[in-house]
Amino acid sequence: MQQLPEQIAQRYGKSPQQEGKRRLAIILTASLLAALFVSWAIWANLTAKNDPTVKTTSFDVIDKTNTSVSFVVTKPANTTAICAIQALKEDYGVVAYKEVIIPASGSEDGSITDVPVKAMLRTTELAVTGLVDRCWFE
């Protein structure tokens, strides 16, 4: 009678040997997926490109065709950054767009520096605000 549970277990895939193989396959698959995830996370952190930070300090709507935007870009001194500046009308439509290049300062040590910038925008309509949309490294 001891033989019957063993025969049933083998027929339906529940023998101790088969259960051990299944458990080993699950452990190996989970380990491989975990290793792949850790590798991807390390690669993503090492290749991530941090954008410069920017703070709009002021804007001035001079007239219906001109708006100025002042801002400060924080970036490594030895890198060149580009900032997209916009002037918006009352319904948030873009009435001026300009890309401003902030050149490297010549310092090769990579120290972080704040660069004040004032940009003039030629608008197509009367603007109600001026702002920095985003900045990136060249």
Question: What key phrases describe this protein's structure?
Answer:
138 residues, single chain, 2 helices, alpha+beta, three-stranded antiparallel sheet
**The CATH C-level class name of the largest domain:** Mainly Beta
End-to-end Cα distance, whole Å, is 79 Å
CATH topology of the largest domain: Immunoglobulin-like
Number of domains: 2
Q: Please, how many helices?
A: 2
- Structural category is alpha+beta
- Biggest sheet: strands, sense, closure? 3 strands, antiparallel
The CATH architecture of the largest domain can be given as Sandwich
Number of strands: 6
Describe the structure.
With 138 residues, the chain is an alpha+beta fold. It folds into two domains: 3-47; 53-137, Sandwich (Immunoglobulin-like), CATH 2.60.40. The chain contains two helices and six strands; from the N terminus they run ααββββββ. A three-stranded antiparallel beta sheet has the order 1-2-5, with no helix packed on it. A three-stranded antiparallel beta sheet has the order 4-3-6, with no helix packed on it. β3 (81-88) and β4 form a beta hairpin. The longest helix is centred in the N-terminal third of the chain and has 32 residues, at 16-47. The radius of gyration is 30 Å and the shape is elongated. The chain starts with a helix and ends with a strand.
